[in-house]
Design the sequence.
């Protein structure tokens, strides 16, 4: 069955010790002996960042994962995640939106797609990124296999970023494994009233690096991979929103102060559409100019 699968274009079987086998994965405890890869095998050698989190995130968490992946993918990182619904899905899509590499590690055979809702995304990743599994062809999804998969997500990556996670979450397992593997651990804080912030706050108390902007991640990881990064975050932020010019941002900034204000209020006062305001606020948040508050409100970030 392996031979028949390998005959299809884009399918690879990479064994430990091969030139194509990722160097970082060779260093972890219980390193896999082989990897089934569908897609671009060269991505296994790019500097990688894992982005993980809740399968049922808030809409703000989903947008944050997408934008961080888009910025960091544009900065030269391959975005690694697990193809699960929620934060994983947003991270993969953010990387694809940036035209960047993304790798999905699977908790089943590479000839399966789980969840079924990500069927189209899986095929897009196979075409523009890479699907990877250590499990034999035909292996069905099983909850016991996903923690094993998580060690590869963290082990493949220079760092793991947790966006939203409850206190008991598979994402916290991935973060713990990252720490044990000597990788960086990052967490995005949130409202104390959001249960999905508690896992991130727990990680921060345990020593994870608090992240407010994508540049925070670049600053930590760039020294580890500077020779591989294709561009800086600064260069990507100049072109990541071609639909808006400096005048649009100047118009929006007039109506953002230290008092919390909603997207609807900003749209009404600025004359911009709600979609425009939402997209621009995400860019300003990632650049450290504004902060997202509970209830979908925003304010200037105090310096």
Sequence:
């Amino acid at each position: 069955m392996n031979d028949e699968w390998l005959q299809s274009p884009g399918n690879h079987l990479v064994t430990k010790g091969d030139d194509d086998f990722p160097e970082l994965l060779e260093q972890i405890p219980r390193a896999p002996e082989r990897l089934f890869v569908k897609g671009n095998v060269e991505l296994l050698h790019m500097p990688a960042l894992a982005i993980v989190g809740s399968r049922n995130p808030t809409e703000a968490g989903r947008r944050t994962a997408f934008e961080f992946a888009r910025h960091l993918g544009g900065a030269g990182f391959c975005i690694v995640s697990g193809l699960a619904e929620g934060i994983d899905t947003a991270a993969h899509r953010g990387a694809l939106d940036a035209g960047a590499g993304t790798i999905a590690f699977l908790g089943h055979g590479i000839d399966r797609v789980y969840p079924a809702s990500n069927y189209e995304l899986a095929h897009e990743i196979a075409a523009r990124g890479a699907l990877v599994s250590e499990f034999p062809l035909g292996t069905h999804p099983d909850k016991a296999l996903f923690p094993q998969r998580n060690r590869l997500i963290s082990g493949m990556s220079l760092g793991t970023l947790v966006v939203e996670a409850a206190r008991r979450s598979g994402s916290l397992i991935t973060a713990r494994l990252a720490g044990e593997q000597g990788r960086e651990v990052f967490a995005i804080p949130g409202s104390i009233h959001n249960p999905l912030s508690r896992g991130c706050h727990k990680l921060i108390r345990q020593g994870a690096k608090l992240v407010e902007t994508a540049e925070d991640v670049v600053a930590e990881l760039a020294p580890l991979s500077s020779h591989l990064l294709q561009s800086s975050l600064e260069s990507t932020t100049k072109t990541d929103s071609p639909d808006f010019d400096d005048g649009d941002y100047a118009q929006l900034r007039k109506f953002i102060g230290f008092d919390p204000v909603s997207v609807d209020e900003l749209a009404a006062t600025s004359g911009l559409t709600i979609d425009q305001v939402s997209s621009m606020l995400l860019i300003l948040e990632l650049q450290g100019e504004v902060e997202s508050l509970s209830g979908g409100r925003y304010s200037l970030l105090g310096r």
User: Anything to note?
Assistant: The first helix runs from residue 2 to 6. Residues 227-242 have pLDDT under 50 and may be disordered.
